Amino acid sequence: MEQNPQPKWEGKVSTRLAKATADQIWPLLNDFFNLHKWFPSLATCYGIHGTNGEPGCIRYCGGSSIPSTDTNKGGNNRPVSWSTERLTAVDHVERSLSYEIVDSNIGFRSYVSAVKVVPQGDDGRDGCVIEWSFNVDPVKGLVLNELVRKYEVGLQQMAKRMEDDAVRGYEEGKKHLIEGETQLKWEGKATAEVRVPAEKVWCFLEDFCNIHKWIPTVDTCYQVEGELGQPGLVRHCASSSTLASEGRREGIKISWAKEKVLMINPIERCLSYEIMENNIGFKSYVATVKVLPINGDGQDGCKIEWSFVSDPIEGWRFEDLNSYISNCLQFMSQNMEQAVLSG
């Protein structure tokens, strides 16, 4: 005799944002590939297929608060929870979208979710409400009330971040309008000499998606989109650091940036790139890296020149950024030199 299938789990949560309008919040939610900017438990989120915000596009989310079903056979670290999610519908008039989980390691099957931003008040100026609903097959190891509570907490935290961003953007815009304030760009340059041929150093640098091999503070770097060696190539770089309080380990902070090649010239041995997205405070950053021969054809050694133009970064001084670039370049040049000489 066949067993009756368990009914679907259904849940719905909502939260009110008193200080942000639906028009301010909807673009943040429709930015489908960047949920990690707002959802606190996501370490990363990026597109793996299609155009951001258009039906059919797929994102990868890593670091969910839902525990992974993967078994961990070594060490004490929990496996990273992840899911790939497809945007199935978008309605800009109703400010709503729906998506489904394509694959995951968190035990979700037949998962479909909808998010909607509802304006409040006659003219929509009394804030807004975010509604988040879902249905999914029963999830092994969880109970429905527990899952709904996770969504409730996550939505409240996400809404707070979005509301703070909307208020901050409004206040900054008003301040600049009133004061006519303009900030000068930060411009800097660092150089390092390398006692190996220029062509060998350039081979390392044009391998854009493997910078973590040379800079020890970069834990991982990989290709996101585009073609190797061509403008438009995008890499994802990430570093981790331990958060501590009163001598106790509190968790791991992931700092990341997506960077795109703007120009690459193998003959002149130079490339330029920009930071597209990040969680470390960069608003506008463009860098150019050149390999310059010291004598003639550069067989006797070369110099790496790393220049940058950046908007001021909140919480940093220009000297901090300049020192950081210089230190990265010194480590990079030493590691490249050692790799050639030891090979």
Automatic annotation (TrEMBL):
Gene3D superfamilies: 3.30.530.20. It comes from the Eukaryota. One of its GO terms (molecular function) is protein phosphatase inhibitor activity. This is Lachrymatory-factor synthase. It comes from Salix dunnii.
